[in-house]
Amino acid sequence: MSGDGATEQAAEYVPEKVKKAEKKLEENPYDLDAWSILIREAQNQPIDKARKTYERLVAQFPSSGRFWKLYIEAEVNILFYFFLYRNCSIHYSDRKQVRNIDN
């Protein structure tokens, strides 16, 4: 068995509580306890992995402002960090260019 297979398995790991919550939602798509477990898991995931859960959540509860807010905040947070990182990188490179001009 190669190291790549182990990496793929680790990346695909789904906690048991999430599996149980998914099973509960198959039986009752309005089970708020099960959704709470999935929401907590999504909040600890990168947005590209969590987005599917948020989209399912707001599709199931389209008039829930609370759930839309969670989804929007997750999307906005990634944008905030992207722009913060980008601006820090630009400022750093600007300072580096200024130092090169001074020398």
Which sequence of SSEs, written as H and E, runs from N to C? HHHHH
Percent range for β-strand residues: under 5%
Whole-number mean pLDDT: 81
Helical content stands at: over 70%
What is this entry, summarized?
The protein is mainly alpha-helical. The chain has helices spanning 3-11, 16-27, 32-43, 47-60, 65-102. Its main location: nucleus.
Characterise the protein shown here.
Helix content is 83%, strand content 0%. It contains five helices and no strands. It has helices at 3-11, 16-27, 32-43, 47-60, 65-102. The protein is flat and about 45 Å long. The termini are far apart. This is Cleavage stimulation factor subunit 3. Residues 17-77 form the Suppressor of forked domain. Keywords: Nucleus, Repeat.
Topology diagram in text:
Elements: H1 3-11, H2 16-27, H3 32-43, H4 47-60, H5 65-102
Helix pairs in contact: 2-3, 3-4, 4-5
Which structural traits does this protein have?
103 residues, disordered C terminus
